[in-house]
Design goal:
By secondary structure, the chain is mostly beta strands. It is built from 1 helix and 28 strands. It has 2 domains: 38 residues, no CATH class; 262 residues, Neuraminidase, CATH 2.120.10.80. It is globular.
Length: 317
């Protein structure tokens, strides 16, 4: 059997306790406990954040628990035109910013930060797309097929927009290269009111309204493959992360508090939201550091999701 030094190039350090700063993958011998210990991500939990200024549902968002933007949505039915309100979050409070040019509900979102986002299509079945630069929204090229209840992933220059419809549900997927949208390989199952995560070349879509509420599909850059279903089937849910690690947040029907984590092959239940809801604004970017703002029926509540690095004893099997 190979020794740790032969693999890592150094001996396991002996510490009287645990190191004060932990990084995932660290390993050491805790002389106080007499055990080999390692650093890994904790289970994750939700904590209360600052309330949004405007109660609403049907909005979307981009960012993390300390820097996010939420946009669109409204207090009326999901089939309505929706509003253009945007709010930015600094980790403790929301501030109103420039409105979208075209108000909308249940739209797709893509982007990498609170200063770089796309708002894609949305209800009353529109094809309009807008780009956020941290200060203002700008109309850019429309998608080819107008729709709502769809899911976006990627960046403002390399994005995907998958499925949707109001009605009928469609399986169409479009790819954005920073200047135009191009239709690519269809998903296996037409769906709407689902969630998505990932990037242009590696995307996950999950959930949807009846009868496809638990189905999950993965995109590898050329084709879609059906993978393991959600543990709790639902729609109007949120998502954040990558194809190797995603969290699915809330949803309906009825309103749900469930949080599930995707590890690249299966879903597992994690800590629930404090308040059950649907159609809130997830951060999209990071499964380990995100938020969920507002949601139905017309809430201002924000919750922040974090997974801190924690020390754990190594056990033999």
């Amino acid at each position: 059997m190979a020794e740790y030094k032969a693999i890592k190039g150094h001996h396991i350090e002996t510490v009287a306790g645990d190191p004060s700063v932990l990084q995932i993958g660290d390993i050491w011998y805790n002389s106080t406990l007499g055990k080999i210990r390692g650093a890994k991500l904790g289970a994750g939990s939700w904590a209360s954040g600052g309330d949004m200024n405007q109660a609403r549902r049907g909005q979307n968002g981009i960012g993390t628990s300390t820097a996010a933007i939420a946009f669109g949505g409204g207090p009326t039915a999901e089939t309505g035109a929706g509003g253009g309100l945007s709010e930015t979050y600094n980790g403790s409070s929301w501030t109103e910013g420039a409105d979208l040019n075209t108000g909308r509900n249940i739209m797709g979102a893509a982007g990498v930060s609170s200063t770089s986002a796309l708002a894609i299509a949305g209800s009353g079945v529109i094809d309009s797309v807008e780009s956020w630069n941290g200060t203002s929204w700008t109309e850019i090229a429309d998608i080819n097929t107008a729709r709502d209840g769809s899911a976006g992933a990627g960046t403002t220059t390399a994005a995907l927009y998958a499925c949707g419809g109001s009605p009928p549900k469609i399986d169409s997927v479009e790819s954005w290269d920073g200047s135009s949208w191009t239709e690519i390989a269809d998903a296996n199952t037409a769906r709407a009111t689902h969630a998505g995560s990932g990037i242009q070349t590696a995307m996950l879509i999950f959930g949807a309204n009846s009868p496809t509420r638990g189905i999950t599909e993965e995109w590898n850059g050329s084709s879609w493959t059906e993978v393991a279903d959600l543990g709790t089937a639902r729609y109007y849910l949120g998502g954040a992360g990558t194809v190797s690690k995603t969290i699915a947040i809330g949803g309906t029907e009825p309103a749900k508090a469930n949080t599930e984590e995707w590890d690249g092959s299966s879903w597992s239940e994690k800590a629930d939201l404090s308040t059950a809801r649907y159609l809130g604004a997830p951060g999209h970017v990071d499964a380990e550091d995100t938020l969920y703002g507002g949601g139905g029926p017309n809430m201002v509540t924000t919750e922040e999701w974090t997974q801190a690095v924690a020390a754990s004893s190594v056990t033999s099997s």
